[in-house]
Amino acid sequence: MSLIVQKFGGSSVADAESIKRVAKRIVETRKAGNDVVVAVSAMGDSTDELLDLANEVTPIQAPRELDMLLSAGERISMALLAMAIKSMGHDARSFTGSQAGMITDATHGAARIVDVTPVRLREALDDGAIVIVAGFQGFSRESRDITTLGRGGSDTTAVALAAALEADVCEIYTDVDGVYTADPRVVKRAHKLGRVTSEEMLELAASGAKVLHIRAVEYARRHGVTLHVRSSFNNTEGTVVYDPSRAPEGAEVEESVIAGVAVDLSEAKITVVGVPDKPGVAAKIFKIVAATNANVDVIVQNVSAAATGKTDISFTLPKADGEKALTALAGAQEAIGFGSLQYDDQIGKLSIVGNAMRNASGVSAKLFEALYEAGINIEMISTSEIRISVVTRADSVNQAAIAVHTAFGLDAAEDAVVHAGTGR
């Protein structure tokens, strides 16, 4: 008997009919002779609705109470799903994150998993029950409070459960048929990948691909969990995310040099103008930014002007961190000696990712030529061994993605099917 962990996102359990459809799929997996553990997200957009409600009550929420509020969404989903499964004649037991043994640190809103002790889950499985776990949440032994894991936390919950229970596979169900070569809502001719390496998936997720959360992919790679991204709306095979070092003999990655194209509109750019071009100044700037907990992405420093001995340093970071970083830098302007700060939140980042880029020539040339022919101006460039990212204007990044996707021969013969929701 195999043990399968399944995760269903908000669009998969958006209403009563959707919950019944998901329950039927879970029961079918159980009837096939598998033990089943399910991690479930809040219904539809209910997390956003709870956030809106909190903002109506007060613009500044206590982090502890906000976690108490937001964790309610997943508890509703888990209970309704267990009821639906029971109505089909199968035993099902629902558990909150704390009941499931999901132990986290004490950080509210973005807690990290420090341990998983699934004692009650194993007992339920031994009794022949289907186990339903509320995703996105845990319990801190340090503070003895409920915590939430942040956006994409249900993916991470599912992977953590799969690792702790030594599951055969962790199936991530979403509203598309798998991992595509681009967001099918942006690039209509994107096609589904049969397999993608965990390394490629990490880069795609970090670059804005929404189908899997980066923390979940990272956790899966670290603990050797095989992921299978599938649609909750049909029974077609999805995309297997695997570690090449653990791949079965004969398994091959996709033939294309490029596995996918990702777009990210969540970042802003800060330019520190007139920075003294001498050792230690950049260290001071980024030490100040680091103290705000902002996650810096792309960094570009211009050539120093001979007449002034000063340069400009530009970097990108999440829009949510922009104001904190600007305030911190402004407070250190005199100490550092720069001229001014510029802030731009109308940028978009496009990235191409592929393991085969390590040994392929001409990839950069093809990317830049495609952007040139589409009339797209490049503002910043960043690279790794298997990724090239460019920053451009937000209103042109989708057009850039379509052009680059076509240039690398990734277009499918027909438009991709998106069943519902936002890709999670």
UniProtKB/TrEMBL annotation:
Entry-linked Gene3D superfamilies: Acetylglutamate kinase-like (3.40.1160.10), VC0802-like (3.30.2130.10)
Listed pathway(s): Amino-acid biosynthesis; L-threonine biosynthesis; L-threonine from L-aspartate: step 1/5; Amino-acid biosynthesis; L-lysine biosynthesis via DAP pathway; (S)-tetrahydrodipicolinate from L-aspartate: step 1/4; Amino-acid biosynthesis; L-methionine biosynthesis via de novo pathway; L-homoserine from L-aspartate: step 1/3
Keyword S-adenosyl-L-methionine in record: no
Coiled-coil positions: none
InterPro entries: AceGlu_kinase-like_sf, ACT-like_dom_sf, ACT_Aspartokinase, ACT_dom, AKii-LysC-BS, Asp/Glu/Uridylate_kinase, Asp_kin_monofn, Asp_kinase
ACT domain sequence ranges: 270-355
Pfam family, one: AA_kinase
E.C. designation(s): 2.7.2.4
Record keywords, A-Z: Amino-acid biosynthesis, ATP-binding, Diaminopimelate biosynthesis, Kinase, Lysine biosynthesis, Nucleotide-binding, Transferase
GO molecular function: aspartate kinase activity
Reactions performed catalytically: L-aspartate + ATP = 4-phospho-L-aspartate + ADP
UniProt superkingdom: Bacteria
Task performed by this protein: Catalyzes the phosphorylation of the beta-carboxyl group of aspartic acid with ATP to yield 4-phospho-L-aspartate, which is involved in the branched biosynthetic pathway leading to the biosynthesis of amino acids lysine, threonine, isoleucine and methionine.
Similarity field: Belongs to the aspartokinase family.
Name of the featured protein: Aspartokinase
